[in-house]
Every structure is written in structure tokens, then in C-alpha cells.
Amino acid sequence: MANLLFISDDWIQKKPLKADLRTHGLTVTAITSTEFLDESFAPPKGLELLILDLERCQTDSLRLCRVIKRERPLQTLPLVLLMAEEQLGRLDPAHGFDDYLTLPVSGKRLAERIKFLLWKLQRVTVNHGFRAGELVIDFERYEVHVKGAPVDVTYKEFELLKFLVTHPGKAFTREVLLDHVWGYDYYGGTRTVDVHIRRLRAKIESGGAGYIDTVRNVGYKFLGPPGSTPDQ
Length: 232
Hints:
With 232 residues, the protein is of the alpha/beta class. The chain has two domains: 3-122, Rossmann fold (3-Layer(aba) Sandwich), CATH 3.40.50; 129-231, Arc Repressor Mutant, subunit A, CATH 1.10.10. The chain has seven helices and 13 strands. It has helices at residues 11-23, 33-37, 61-70, 107-122, 155-165, 174-182, 191-204, and strands at 3-7, 27-31, 49-53, 79-84, 99-103, 129-132, 135-138, 143-146, 149-151, 172-173, 212-215, 219-222, 229-231. A five-stranded parallel β-sheet has the order 2-1-3-4-5.
């Protein structure tokens, strides 16, 4: 049973949708955007996914998404946006979402999309390593190989690469990457991330394959070729 945080400022209309999600085996914590932004709000433990309803959102949507990506318990959770069809033209990659659906949507369809998204993400939950094309990463030995040849990477380069490959296709801001790889106590600037990304690209993409993608106005994501698989 997946544990979800559902943010909406239209609970009069969305209450049936919340009830439908629960009937389909999902645990839903429902709050408004104002409650979410309140400093006293503490995310429930064990959250697996966030739903953000933008149809009648009283808070700037980009601000909300940036807060979500700044909060350490929520940064890496998949984010699903709900919006009216006329809002699609304002859909911005800077929101950092993983999926979206246009309203109205049935609880059954939303539940199925959520379960599929969680299943897809679980497929890349790695135990020992990761393989994408000719790139092989051994998490236990801290080793990286390209075309069978070892690649010399620093500890931070390895941790940055590991974080990206375990969230394939998801874009992260430089601030989020800095926080996860270097930690809260690091006082360097976000340019540190750019430098490490540039070095990683030079080391693992020398054969022409592209693995790390730059998302304009957002940051970076791992974009492995078809056949990217976790090593068990």
C-alpha cells in the first residue's frame, strides 16, 4: 500500500478523488498548499509519492515545486501534477515533475498511473550496481567501467553519478545535488556541481555515448540508453 501526500486547494471537488484513491489501496494524507508551506508542517514518515493539484492552486505552482525539491524528506520522491487542460501551455520542466494528468480524471486512472510510476521507479532500485550500455558501475567496490576499461573517478564524482543513475530520467537542480552529495554543511557554491558533471562527462562519455543530460533552467538528469538495468 503506497503512502501519498496529496496537496490541493480544492478539496470540495477533490474529496471524491481522494476517497477513490483510498479504495484502490493507497494511503492518502490530504493538505492544502497553505498548510504545506507552514513552517510547522512535518511530512508524514514513509511517503512514497507526491500529488500536486494545480487546477485551483492558491500558491504559485513553481514556488510550491521548488519548496518540495528543497525539503530533504521530499526531494527524491516522484511528483505527479494534476492540472486543467488549459494549463498545459504553462507546464514548465522547472517544476521537476515525474508525471502529469489532465483533469477531470477518475480515481481508478490516477491510482493505476501512480502504481505504474512507483513500479517503474522500483525497477531501478539497485543493490550492487548499475549497467547502462557500455557503462558499468559497481556500488560495493566503488568502481566504474566503460567498454570494460576501469575509469578513475573521485569519491564525490562517484557519489554524484550514483545518485543520478538511481533516479534515471528525473531532473535535479544543482542545489538538490549539492545537498545530497555534499551535504548541508558544505559551503561551496553550485558551480561545484557543474565542475563535477563536466569531469564525469569527460570520463564516461568519451566513447560518444551520452549519459548525463543538461535540463535547461533546471539542472541535470541521468539519461541512460535503452537497456539500462540494475545489477543484482
